[in-house]
UniProtKB/TrEMBL annotation:
Signal sequence interval, chain numbering: none
Membership in a protein family: Belongs to the IspG family.
Annotated metabolic or biological route of this protein: Isoprenoid biosynthesis; isopentenyl diphosphate biosynthesis via DXP pathway; isopentenyl diphosphate from 1-deoxy-D-xylulose 5-phosphate: step 5/6
Keyword match Iron-sulfur: yes
Protein name (database record): 4-hydroxy-3-methylbut-2-en-1-yl diphosphate synthase (flavodoxin)
Residues in IspG C-terminal domain copies: 302-402
Reported cofactor(s): [4Fe-4S] cluster
A GO molecular-function annotation: 4-hydroxy-3-methylbut-2-en-1-yl diphosphate synthase activity (ferredoxin)
UniProt keyword terms in alphabetical order: 4Fe-4S, Iron, Iron-sulfur, Isoprene biosynthesis, Metal-binding, Oxidoreductase
Catalytic activity field: (2E)-4-hydroxy-3-methylbut-2-enyl diphosphate + oxidized [flavodoxin] + H2O + 2 H(+) = 2-C-methyl-D-erythritol 2,4-cyclic diphosphate + reduced [flavodoxin]
Length: 408
């Protein structure tokens, strides 16, 4: 027997993040959760609420917003109110650095409106101040019963802890490499901070950890290691993944290795947006990673061939693109009306070489005519040739066939 997709999920505690009746579970045997982050000025209530709405409608199950100053903290309850008016109940996560202890204390309505706090142990102060300010943030999380993510980032590592680990390393008979020391510092920062939070009264099932780095192999190494030293749920993401295809490829390469090993309970794809680009792209990429790996289903998949010299027109590429856009647009309504539709496959193929074969494997498939083939496009439904389309309206006719299939 050859096992397809064999994968054992790491066993983690489960953490509930909620807003009103909406409960998002991270960890345990819950599906891997998709999250994203706004890039608006949080003090801009309307602009931020609109972006959160767009991200949530695209499929982001948690949305993080930066809470970086008093104006932002003051805006948070107003953003939540706007979202309530729009019917958006996605839980909001507050991202705090440097002054989180003060903001949470001075703006209790903000502390209450958020569903989770992100704490970066490298950015809560240094020395004695670090311990006090970290404790103040944990105290607020306990007071409002909010889970936290202790999110370490190698761009903002706790320098005292790094110095301590380097010092310990220098005492070893065979010192570890500088790279391993860095990994150890990241992991130790996350786990020691979580243990400290528990000592301060934070329930263990309210803590999620992350250790973000920007290199693919570094991320894999760090998460493989931390996954063996704790059972807190893990938030995966390649920080500063980059722009365009580089960011997508690097994130996919790193996350798919870890997810296949059962590591990772929530993911964020941190893409640098292109000017005027759509922030929701990071949500679509996250969905596509999980769906192509067979871990979750979000929308019907379009299987399209790359095209080659056997087809000189771009008709089939345009059809594949049109069908993909059509399916994406329909999904918010379809997923309510037609449960299971997200598991559907639609094949759009460029010629007879692989067209009929691939079409038969899909729920619906069309094989467009390649160069020199007769101008006919056979359509297969559930593996059986159902009809042949001809003429100038093949795209519209095929879209209608897909719609009828979903509605039947
Ligand atoms: Fe080329 Fe036909 Fe294969 Fe598409 S199905 S890549 S057009 S040979």
């Amino acid at each position: 027997e050859i096992a397809c997709g064999a994968r054992t999920r790491r066993i983690a505690r489960s953490v509930k993040i909620s807003y009103k009746d909406r409960i998002v579970v991270v960890g345990g045997d819950a599906p891997v959760v998709i999250q994203s982050m706004t890039n608006t000025d949080t003090a801009d209530v309307i602009g931020t609420a609109i972006q959160i709405k767009d991200l949530a409608r695209a499929g982001s199950e948690l949305v993080r917003i930066t809470v970086n100053n008093p104006e932002a903290a003051q805006a948070v309850p107003a953003i939540r109110e706007q979202l309530d008016r729009m019917g958006i109940d996605v839980p909001l996560v507050g991202d705090f650095h440097y002054n989180g202890h003060t903001l949470l204390k001075d703006f209790p309505e903000c502390a209450q409106a958020l569903s989770k706090y992100r704490i970066n142990p490298g950015n809560v102060g240094q020395g004695a101040k670090r311990d006090t300010q970290f404790a103040q943030m944990i105290e607020m999380a306990c007071r409002y019963s909010k889970p936290v993510r202790i999110g370490v980032n190698w761009g903002s590592l706790d320098q005292n802890l790094l110095a301590r680990i380097m010092d310990e390393n220098s005492q070893r008979a065979t010192p570890l490499s500088a790279q391993t020391v860095m990994y150890q510092a990241l992991i130790t920062s996350a786990i020691e901070s979580a243990q400290r939070a528990e000592e301060l009264g934070m329930p263990g099932d309210q803590i999620i950890l992350s250790c973000k780095v920007s290199g693919v192999q570094d991320l894999i190494a760090v998460y493989r290691e931390i996954s063996q030293h704790c059972d807190y749920p893990l938030h995966l993401g390649l920080t500063e993944a980059g722009m365009g295809s580089k960011g997508i490829v690097a994130s996919t390469a790193a996350l798919s290795v870890l997810l296949q090993e059962g590591i990772g309970d929530t993911i964020r794809i941190s893409l640098t947006p292109e000017p005027g680009g759509d922030r929701c792209k990071e949500v679509f990429v996250a969905q596509e990673i999980l769906q192509t790996m067979g871990l979750r289903k979000f929308m019907p998949m379009v299987i399209a061939c790359p095209g080659c010299g056997r087809t000189t027109s771009t008709v089939f590429q345009e059809l594949a693109d049109d069908i993909q856009s059509f399916l994406r647009e329909q999904m918010p309504v379809w997923k309510e009306q037609y449960p299971g539709v997200e598991g559907m496959n639609v094949a759009v193929m460029g010629c007879i070489v692989n067209g009929p074969g691939e079409s038969k494997h899909a729920h619906i498939g069309i094989s467009l005519p390649g160069t020199g083939e007769s101008p006919a496009a056979p359509v297969f439904i559930d593996g059986v040739k159902a009809m042949t389309l001809r003429g100038d309206n093949i795209a519209q006719d095929f879209q209608k066939i897909v719609l009828d299939y979903v509605q039947s």
